[in-house]
Every structure is written in C-alpha cells, then in structure tokens.
Design brief:
Elements: H1 7-21, E1 25-30, E2 35-42, E3 45-53, E4 57-59, E5 67-69, H2 70-73
Antiparallel strand pairs: 1-2, 2-3, 4-5
InterPro entries: Nuclease_put_TT1808, Restrct_endonuc-II-like, Uma2
Length: about 80
C-alpha cells in the first residue's frame, strides 16, 4: 500500500530497486485513489502492465488464475 509519507519511495525508488533485483511482478495499491497498478519485469526494469481504478480486475502474469477485484479490495474503505 502507498503511504503518503513514503509515496516517492514506494512509487519510484523501490520499484527500480526491485527491478534491478529481478522481482518479476510488482503491484502498487493506493487506497486514496483506489488504484492498483501492476508492473512486470522487462530486462532490469519494472514497466507498467496495467492500472485499474475503481472497477475491474488485475491479473497476474506469473500465477495462473490469480486476479484481484479492485472494487472488492476497496469496498470497506
């Protein structure tokens, strides 16, 4: 989850560090905007695969059948 106090680290620095470390998939969940972004590794960089706000589903490229209903994720906020 993105925290206002660490948003820069979460959105940029950590993503870059994880890409260089070989993390193959990375998600950023922002409760304020009710947005989920999915990044996928290309080379040594994590690039945006999809971003869903409000309604819709995000799916994993790595784990077949793994998907998250974004509206359900934020339902109780």
């Amino acid at each position: 989850m993105v925290s206002p106090s660490t948003a820069y680290l979460d959105l940029l620095e950590k993503r870059d560090d994880y890409g260089q470390a070989g993390v193959r998939e990375y998600r950023i969940v922002d409760p304020e905007t009710q947005m989920v972004e999915v990044y996928s590794l290309e080379g040594e960089r994590l690039v945006l695969l999809e971003g869903v706000r409000g309604m819709g589903r995000v799916r994993s490229r790595l784990i077949p059948g793994l998907e998250v209903d974004v509206a359900e994720l934020f339902r109780d906020l």
